[in-house]
Amino acid sequence: MYKLYATIIKDFRILLRDKVGLSLMFAMPIALALIITAVQNSTFELVNHNKIKLLLCNKDTAEASLQLVTAIEKTGMFEPIIVPANEKEETIIARMHAKDALIAVVIPKGFSIKITSTANRVAGNALSSFELTKDTTNKTLNSNFPITLYYHPVLQESFRQSILGAVNGALQLVQSKQIVRSLYTSLNEKQIPDSLENQIINNQIPIDQIPISKDSSRGIPNASQHNIPAWTIFAMFFIVISLGSSVVKEKLSGSFIRLNTLPTNYLIALLSKQLTYLLVAMLQAGTIFALGVWLFPVIGLPALNLPRDMTGLIIVSLICGWCAVSYAITIGVFSQTQEQCNGFGAISIIMFAAIGGLLVPSFAMPASFKPFLYLSPLHWCLEAYYGLFLEGGKLKDVLMNILPILCMILFMQLLTFYGLKRKNLI
């Protein structure tokens, strides 16, 4: 026991001398957690709370176009900037290039006439189908409304589709109003009362958004719930830079040979390194979780809600940390130089993060990448954390995610032992 204690003290002293490794293990993941969470949270707020600037040029002064302007404002998604009707479209495009707004909507002359004409045609067809009137007009509908939507190329496709859906919703509302008015006027030969029109048009069925969580009191997960577990795992696995380099350095300096002359076994030194860096991994997790709980609300980010099963959180963190430590030692044993260890270790972690769902959500990956998804230890670690943080589960609910991690740990430990034996280091 004393040999193990002395070896742990030695490894801690070596670790404290590695300033670059410590900064990579703590400063970098903390910075990533802050930056990525802030960026993603601002994106969520842009969709849900903040408004997108929109250049709105109404070249038609009739009622339908004014209704469309009002409907766009009421979507709550846009901050309309009214452009004079005589403004040239080249000027609008120039303003968009200057980033005054990323979206512009131009309502041309004749818009209201087109809407009214189409609404009357739809109403006439409907009454004719019920044999209430004999409609002899052309029943072919032209649903192409002369609306122009300019967008800046910087907008991604998914975000542009959300904006297009909001504009289409406003346009559909105006069209529905005109159809209801035309039907009512045809049947009653008078204008529809405003109260009845509002009752018909605004009678929407509400949609309850309920996350499928085992803990119904947690509510909708925020950006911190998604990002903090992911970057905690990323921080743990970046131990490979410090731990892998330490193993390579001891091989190159002859420490393995000197240990063989002492009344001890290198397996004790290997266990010492694992315990030392497992403690570092737990400190990383504790530090990043503490930032999410206490610092994030102070700087305007959503607070991290810890799982109710704290025992499960500790066990999952220990297993994830052990997996990271096992991977780092394996890389160190098979690397010939520190440059190989650092280069391959860092790149492989980024690749595992990419295919494991940390950088891109796993559900958004192409089908050809799905088989590789399950080969990434970071994927199973992330799924275990998400089961606790997002789904409100307990330890028993994430056992199927923990088992693959334990299998990978066993495989890496055996691979490490084989590498040491093959090189006659133990």
Describe the 3D structure.
This protein has a four-stranded mixed β-sheet, with helices on both faces. Helix content is 65%, strand content 5%. The protein has 16 helices and four strands. α8 packs antiparallel against α15, α11 crosses α12 (310-334) and α15 runs antiparallel to α16 (399-422). The protein has 426 residues and is mainly α. The model has no long low-confidence stretch (mean pLDDT 80). The protein has two domains: 2-42 and 219-422, no CATH class; 51-201, abc type-2 transporter like fold (3-Layer(aba) Sandwich), CATH 3.40.1710. The chain starts with a helix and ends with a helix.
Topology:
Elements: H1 2-17, H2 19-48, E1 52-58, H3 63-74, E2 78-83, H4 89-97, E3 103-107, H5 111-129, E4 148-151, H6 157-188, H7 194-201, H8 223-237, H9 240-253, H10 255-260, H11 266-298, H12 310-334, H13 338-356, H14 370-373, H15 377-389, H16 399-422
Parallel strand pairs: 1-2, 1-3
Antiparallel strand pairs: 3-4
Helix pairs in contact: 1-11, 2-8, 2-11, 3-6, 5-6, 8-11, 8-15, 9-12, 9-13, 11-12, 12-13, 12-15, 12-16, 13-15, 15-16
